[in-house]
Amino acid sequence: MLENLDRRQLSENDRKLLLLNLIVTYKKAGFLDRAEKQANLAIQEFPTEGLFYKEISDIKQLCNNWEESLKFLERANEFSEEFSEELNYLKLFIANRYIDSGNLDSALKILREIKSPLPNAFFYYTLSRIYFSIGEKEKAVSSAITGMKLLRGRSEAFVNLLLDYMQVEERLLENILSSIG
């Protein structure tokens, strides 16, 4: 029904809203190919509307195509800074995937590209993982402690990180946690 509307009679904002509704409806229904097709048509009509690039980024994530998702989210961010925080989290997520696969150079490259106001606990978590992976335990622990301080009382991920990489004794871990407060 939405596809059959005569778009020529709609205002520009109404056309954007119609296209967005089509994209979201297809995406929610699981028709990702149709959603992506509509988003590409929307980009052809409105090439500077960041939200349509963001929608393709979301579709790429649903398909586990993280690098493509990143490209589209970066493009969306060029048109609207409202996507910058999500862009940074996506970069951190991808950096952690690179760490998991042993590709530390790519993980470091992504970390260097992040342009967000720090502090950000996920940034310090990722940085700590990289330091552990290259054998820089002191820097890794320091980064983990910085991240834990930001989370105050919700630092389970950092505790698990320390346990996994260092096989830290519980007493030492308790000292670290009590020093954080």
Give the structure's gist in a few sentences.
By secondary structure, the protein is mainly α. The chain is built from ten helices and no strands.
Give the arrangement of secondary structure elements:
Blueprint: H1 12-29, H2 32-45, H3 50-62, H4 66-79, H5 84-100, H6 104-113, H7 121-133, H8 137-151, H9 156-166, H10 170-180
Notable traits:
181 residues, mainly alpha, 10 helices, 75% helix, 0% strand, elongated
Would you write up a description of this structure?
With 181 residues, this protein is mainly alpha-helical. Helices cover 75% and strands 0% of the residues. The protein is built from 10 helices and no strands. Helix 2 (32-45) runs antiparallel to helix 3 (50-62), helix 5 runs antiparallel to helix 6 and helix 7 (121-133) runs parallel beside helix 9 (156-166). The radius of gyration is 21 Å and the shape is elongated. The protein starts with 11 loop residues before the first helix and ends with a helix. The model has no long low-confidence stretch (mean pLDDT 88).
Oligomer: single chain
Q: How many strand units?
A: 0
H/E series: HHHHHHHHHH
Number of helices: 10
Average pLDDT score: 88
Derived structural class: mainly alpha
Largest sheet: none
Distance N to C terminus: 58 Å
Q: Give the helix proportion (percent range).
A: over 70%
Proportion of residues in extended strands = under 5%
Which word captures the global form?
A: elongated
* Low-confidence regions: none
The radius of gyration over CA amounts to 21 Å
